[in-house]
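Revision sheet: structure tokens.
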Amino acid sequence: MAFITTSSASSRGSKFSLSRLTQAFAVLRQRRQLSQLDATALRDMGLTQTDVDCELSRSAWDVPAHWRG
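Predicted:
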């Protein structure tokens, strides 16, 4: 006979996963918006098209360490 148990640890894992997923969608949205800026806007922010291309090549999970909490 098999027993299925739930624990608070698995519940916390679900919340963590949902948080990471929400964060990933936010990162994708921000990178999509960055990709739509023209050269003048990029120059105003001190960015080049190479900077943008580099940022766009990163995965959704690749975020600054301080975002990971």
